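Supplementary Methods, section 5.1.

A reviewer requested that the exact input to the structure prediction be made available. We therefore reproduce it here, unchanged from the version used in the analyses.
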Amino acid sequence: MNTIGYFEIQSSDPNRDSKFYQSVFDMHVMYHEKGFIQLTTPGCNDILVFEEKKDQPIGQTGGIAHFGFRLKNPNDIDGIIKNVIIAGGTIISSVGNGPNMFYGFRTNGVFTSDAEAAAAGLSKMQANGSLLAFKGGDVRFIDINGDKLIDNNDQQIIGDPNPEFYGSDKYKKENDGSYRAFEKHHYRINYRFTDNVIRVLRVRHTGREPKEY
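The structure derived from this sequence is encoded token-by-token as follows.
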């Protein structure tokens, strides 16, 4: 079964919604800035994002800005792409990036004054089609395409939930590929991964003579 990796939901009050999901579903905050909160579920990489959208209607998407998903079988990707297009969705992809990448806006602090915001010249589109200029206290979003308008064209990959796998452990006899190792701060860590478990087998200083096992 394919599973949802993350949802981004438009919210008029992200703080209120965040408190509800923390209380009822035991989720916890992994990132929080003004008008933008990311929650994660216990024991996994599932992400729920609330982004403040007071001046925009929910529309046909039901308030869902975008979402990501995991595939049980990576070979099913072509079928998933067809299903998304048939359902009216848009595929966002780029060469060299893995599945389930987190997609959103990057920020560069907060405008400290109206004058600073005016100098940047950034605006956002309101529901009625008019432009609303940013002001002091607003989050400074990065304008990717340089058009001075912060919209979906400025979204980009902001994170990677995929686990990092290192090379095969050359000191493991009869290694089926699940035994791996890496070195960090003069230590060599040997571990084994299965479908749902990663088990650290041993940690040895690189100054010691390596041993097969």
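The two ends are 37 Å apart (CA to CA). These observations are discussed further in the main text.
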